[in-house]
Amino acid sequence: xxxxxxxxxxxxxxxxxxxxxxxxxxxxAWAWSTGPAIPSWSGPWRSRWWLGHWDLALADYGRALxxxxxxxxxxxxxxxxxxGIGRTHLEAGRPAKAIAPLERAVAVAKPEKFxxxxxxxxxxxxxxxxxxxxxxxxxxxxxxxxxxELAAAGGxxxxxxxxxxxxxxxxxx
Length: 173
Description:
Layout: H1 2-32, H2 44-50, H3 54-68, E1 69-70, E2 73-74, H4 76-91, H5 95-108, H6 111-131, H7 136-152, H8 157-172
Antiparallel strand pairs: 1-2
Helix pairs in contact: 1-3, 1-4, 2-3, 3-4, 4-5, 4-6, 5-6, 6-7, 7-8
């Protein structure tokens, strides 16, 4: 009987660890989706993003999105995760792949509830359009509109500074 109890306890501990692991990956991806605007957070998921392990970061985001997507609809955490997926593709140098998740995030986010995340999604979508050369003029217009809305809505200084730095860099090209 003791063997059976030990075996059951061992399997419960393994199941608990697996659940914790999948939850922490999902929570990690959700927490990181706003990108480098908050560099003070730490954790293994941050290391993947900050060290440029884009495919590992995208795998974390994929697991997170699977948790936050129910019946084809995403909740608040899913919107943040979609923006994170788009940002990761941009940072990895794959702007064409960033467009679909960013378009979905912008479309799903209701301005009255998720205004900040929608604006960040809009400017990243504009950036993806410009960098992929799919709609350069439309991308620049979207970026300028998002910047004006972000500043008017009281967006964080880090987000606005990141946007302004990218615009200045894009003008030099």
